[in-house]
Amino acid sequence: MLASDGGSVEVVYTIERQVLLCSSHSDGLIRAPCVPAVGSAVSLCNIAIHALVMAIVVQISSRVAIEKNIVQQPLRRAIIMIAIASVATVPVLMVAHFSEVIVWSLAYDLVNATPAGADPIYFAFVNYTTLGYGDLTPVEHWRLLGPITAMNGVLLFNWSLRC
Length: 163
Description:
By secondary structure, the protein is mainly alpha-helical. It has one domain. Helices cover 59% and strands 4% of the residues. The protein has 4 helices and 2 strands. It has helices spanning 35-67, 75-111, 120-128, 145-161; strands spanning 2-4, 9-11. A hairpin with a 4-residue loop joins strand 1 (2-4) and strand 2 (9-11). The longest helix is centred in the middle third of the chain and has 37 residues, at 75-111.
């Protein structure tokens, strides 16, 4: 805002304070200032899912290794047993990742971040896997959910590789 008292001009800037709390508007939609809150909540939910699955996988693998006394087995047999365990683990981890993508798609649907006419599951998969086709982009005020989803996916895929 400009104000003048004859010879001098005073410039006054008014900056509206943006609150990071989520609030719904008259149209019922949740708006962008809460992107970090939504992204964090979904990420934490997915981390909890992944932690549970990984704990189960590690527990079962450890129990089998002890019962089969894998350390004392001849090398060839130990390699075969590890290969079988790995093949059995992969579908379990794929189900975990698919579940995490579903959680993201539900969040996208809840806040209307998916572009009109787009499939939220496909949209979530593209972001979670960092595929980045570029054929879909989030609704403008939710665009930061895409990178947050990608960070979450990279973190959880890397965690799966450490199993």
